[in-house]
Amino acid sequence: MVQRVSVGLERRPHQMFYCWFFLLCVSVCVCVCVCVCVCVCVCVCVCAHTAQDHAYPADELMPLTCRGRVRGLEPSRGDVDDALGKFSLTLIDTLDTLVVLNKTVEFEAAVRRVLKDVKLDNDIVVSVFETNIRVLGGLLGGHSMAIMLKKRGERMLWYQDELLHMAKELGHRLLPAFNTSSGLPYPRVNLKHGVGGPESRTGTETDTCTACAGTIILEFAALSRFTGDPVFEVHARRALDFLWEKRQRNSNLVGTTINIHSGEWVRRDSGVGAGIDSYYEYLLKAYVLLGDDLFLQRFNIHYASIMKYISQPPLLLDVHIHKPLLPARTWMDSLLAFFPGLQVLKGDIRPAIETHEMLYQVTKKHNFLPEAFTTDFRVHWAQHPLRPEFAESTYFLYKATGDPYYLEVGRTVLDNLNRYARVPCGFAAMKDVRTGSHEDRMDSFFLAEMFKYLFLLFADTEDLPFDVEDYIFTTEAHLLPLSLSVAPSSAATLGNATSEGEVDDTNFDWTCPNTRLLFPDPAYPRNLRDPIRSAVDKSCPRPLPYREPGMGRAPLRAQDFMANNPEHLELLRRMGVSLIHLKDGRVQLVQHATQAVSAVAAEDGMRFMQEMMELSSQQQKEQLPPRAIQIVSHPYFGRVVLTAGPAQFGTDLSKSSTGVSHPYSGCSELTNGDFVQGRIALLQRGQCMFAEKARHIQRAGAIGGIVIDDNEGSSSDTAPLFQMAGDGRSTDDVHVPILFLFHKEGNILLRALKEYREVEVLLSDKARDRGEIQDLYTGFIFSTNNDSTNEMHELTLNLIMVLPHLLRSQGTLFCVPEIIILLDTHISHTVLKIAFFNPF
To answer: What is the pTM of this model?
Structure first.
């Protein structure tokens, strides 16, 4: 049970803001103290300083200078100040939090103060997004709590929907922002003058973020359902429909910034963090709140693409929407910390546990989650404005799993807040998590969300004045009743009712998971967390002494670098160079000099990167066109065409009568050299440089190699043309030709081999029609090796499987297939006749 603490404070009007704020602090801390015996004293000490504060009715408290932040009186902070509208933002944003903490007396007083003092017709430009989620959401959350308390006859008996009337007024003041041809709202609106015209001082903007336009539906739909006026829900649905139509159709991802008039993507990077985060959140929650299957269908399609392209457990890395296998950056922002909580709502618990654990380990290293951090978990942006997303995901994971581990996580969050962020007049944002310096800032979302989620994390059911399960949380943690799903609305019929295409309509997509069935082993979550904890620890060891100036040559030269050498990777880390394996198999190097262990190491890193660029430039030979592989035997007859990539070394297919070209495998001397001699080796990509593979099979006597990509799901449909480069040294000694197939195309060839045992394949610079293929076979049948004009050759070769598991099928292992290659030098293509035989 939560122990209640009464704090006697003189409630002068200008101090009212602080009284309920610090009562909120005490309630949370006492709740946590009952569970983990910490924090009571520090919270009471905070309350002792409230008497000297004079912030009300300012939008936010400045905790270092102990005064209110009033827009126009303080130096501008740019877009951050667009949340401030001179409408007592923090007071409105935390109304329903008071009820969650069972502070109904303080809630009633706060509602009266809002109705008495807050005006919404201020001549001020505000963010449509922030005003919607914080102010409109706060008013609706307060209204939900007020009618609940009134219905129970406990409090608010005088209440006559006054907060709802204010919410409707604010909704109408936001509607002018939606006056665009696309239906996407302008990013800003003047509360008094709307959009457009000199008085409004806004309306010239052309771009908005995806989250800004796509995080409207919950508040606007709730406003329509509460008031019976469908206009708000209609506009919110129209904006969502437009974003859906503008998704990239191949990847099913959306960009970060969009032109509100043309619908063109301005920023085409896509992730689950800043700029997009709550768009995905609101699609799923709109289905929960409104019961419209269309929202769930769209979310499921997006989610499948997120897990395919963005999710690299435990990481969530931004990609390009048109090239989703290409990472857009090497760092992650802290706003993605909400995503594990959303995955819990979706029912996908495993990746939620993994990503949350990664975030927790980063938090433990830096005391707070940095505003952005790199893929090796180092600080990229050092600020921390007391964001609540990590606490939010912690709460939802605890609700889903019941694992007390997440109570420990919550205690760590609260301990760090009191140890590092607490100041005499509240809690101050961290200017730099590395130094512990503060910023004179305490955003309203800190009080609206952080304490709410921490309280709910530790509270027992009997501690809560109502059943939280009857409500859904908005992105600002405001509570909207699920009963709105049955409220009358004509807006749903006005939305886009067209077919959304095929959806994987499995039971898992449409039902809530039973975690006892999914995770029968109580140790399952811990087993997921342990490897991630170890990986984060190893990625961020204590800095070691680095070499001093004048100690000789650089520790690593570009021409010597091997991506699979652990010593080389450690040297890169010390030089501030991070290595990222792209999903298409390539490697990307990025240097952050500030992350090097010393200034000398940073210089070595810059030198290494320069050498790498020069090496890459040397390897950038004339762009080679892709090659075509056609399966020409029965039953394909040339209708199956696979795109293959060429090599920048070895014998070129278009100029020679030998072999095939692309990814290679065989990173050490072959042990079956006698058997490989005179044959083509089938290889798998990875573990060493392509040229090294080619040299190994060439030394073994192979006349060529076919390499199949080891990246699951890679395809020429989504990945750019891949050309196998050399290793920085001369490749004149490599004569065997190599061709490369992505994983998807390679599997097509492998399946054909399994099914028909004998497959004829045409390799050429471009696909041939059936007439050309027929002429080719006719020419072969009637020509002889003695005909110098045709120069036809028939070679009987054995295709050696370096990785025979590629052809496993239901327990049967097919290997050592026989290949006959028919070569015609005049038309620059190669025909392979591949027949299986079982050597066992």
So the answer is: 0.65
